[in-house]
């Protein structure tokens, strides 16, 4: 039960929240200079590191280490907070009954008011108990500090959050670690770590449900990061020296790295990157002149580079991320994939941190780590672009380019079949048996029960073996992203790849035309970056909707729409857990196995407003890091219990086609800046989008109910849970009404984005309501020979995965540019039909 927040929130506001916290800390430090070295009598904490940690480092250094931006006392308080979210429960036989009674009380407080005693009993029966097995007992007895979550969280925050945010957090932690701070926060005259567990838990619950958005943001930031690291990070504490997370056994999670066949298969596929490695100049190589420089290697840049090289032009591709092969992917766990291949190590978020934004940051960009959904642009969206943005004639060649892209990537549903899954991936590769996991099957069942047709998701794969780890890079070389296209382009001898190269700005002549780039390049060892200057006849910026506006801004472009009208396809989730057995067999939804995203619901009511805007239900893959980030935290005991229903749970998401708003933007940096500040992303749901997403939640709750889920809840901190007894139609409709009233509250409702679009939109209009900084041929209005080819030029969001649309547009625009530069229609060694 959440504490009454009114008693202490006015006090906190009275001291100015964070500003008051800093002032109080300074006073206390002056009065007690030894406070920083005080021993921590609360939760157990491992020795603190004395040197900076890499974000996902497997081992803490033997000599300790330190998070440089936190003092020892603040780090101890952070550890106490995380040990409140994820405590070590006493699982001795004498305490088991008390734990079960507490779990029953927690459940009763969490169920919707329409629930009865029998509903609570059903929900409790679906929850595992620490007494069920030794592995579950270890899980309940494991605290966050047992796996070094606090120093790793501090290292993550240091790498991924701006100093202002960290300074505020440090002030709060410092205040919490004092007796005066305990008094301010309603704990009495004691430090946070000296308070009882019940007091500490009620305080965090108060933050989670606070009317103050700053406190909800503080809670969610600590909860998401701490719980994700607890479940997702590999640790050297496994059996036989294995580097794995000790909680995976309790979750029954088997990472791809456990498959002994993976290294052999990966090594064979990695050899296909030999030509691309050979196309990478040495760090000290002399600068060259090129026909075209492409900044970024994702769906936009990788496609453009492939086309231009096929047309006989000399192309340089500059990618700020690393170049990884199948052998690298095979060695990664989920968290390591996020560290190496994702923007901000998968911790990118909007300004108030209410939306987690997933974007690729490696060679191949998002096409290397996405879920392979390959949809052509909806016709009603193209009509809207023609009508509002004047792009009818400009898109005349798009259909042919879409055909070429889909043929090149092998787009289809051949590898979206449903068969018995083979656990031996090597055998699966030989037999070509493919599976849509039970999570996808449940979506199909729910849709059919409601009379809604489902559609198999077309995918850009060849020889897929259903490993379920698309988001960690494809070990099997089955995914046909731009990494594959760049390998082919390198074989022509006309492509140079510069990985780990960050472009500061585009150089321009006196007339303002693009002439090349100024960049910084690192070696793979992470040494000092060396400056790199390249010249070209044309420059294409394809850094994605998050980074392209920043590159243009640093290059001196100031069109008023650059960075604005950002769209994200915001996603919210509904979770359902199923009974232990289904049709006489143990239930296993296998959210981490099978085709990552194999089905989606398509029906007329998806168009909620008559203008082509709505929410498309799908079901994504879920691995432990995302599981910890996504499951709402009501109480520590209920959270741990809910995590253990992983093998019997399914998640339905609603991908919202969001409306354009000039207020949603990427902040532009100063001209010719060489610094690379963290992204400042301003994004809030419009009123129309909030309505769409609420309708999407209601639809997904209905789908989950129709599929037979026993316990159902939207992933909102405020949401009560519904127990499905199969004969409770009236109470279910009451719950639907309740879900509608919840709305979409920032840092209460969990929201994600995996698609970023429209921040440099293409338009035939230079001014007015539908203006864009990019002309229909992809060229910037303010700079000749400077082009943009990526998701940022989409005039609006699409409502479906934008990869094929981005690649189709880039294919079309790159051919137009090649012709302008005088390239032959087909060069020797160019890709056939491309």
Q: Which topology of the largest domain does CATH recognise?
A: FAD/NAD(P)-binding domain
- Using only C-alpha atoms, the radius of gyration works out to 26 Å
Total domain units: 3
Largest sheet: 7 strands, mixed
- Tell me the overall shape: globular
CATH class value of the largest domain: Alpha Beta
Averaged pLDDT, please? 87
How would you describe what is shown here?
β1, α15 and β2 form a beta-alpha-beta unit. It is built from 29 helices and 22 strands. The chain is 37% helix and 11% strand. It folds into 3 domains: 190 residues, no CATH class; 296 residues, FAD/NAD(P)-binding domain (3-Layer(bba) Sandwich); 151 residues, no CATH class. The protein has 834 residues and is α/β, with parallel strands linked by helices. The longest helix has 20 residues. Strands 1, 2, 7, 8, 9, 10 and 22 form a 7-stranded mixed beta sheet that branches. It has a 5-stranded antiparallel beta sheet with strand order 15-16-11-19-20. α2 packs across α8, α15 packs parallel to α29 and α20 crosses α29. The N terminus is likely disordered.
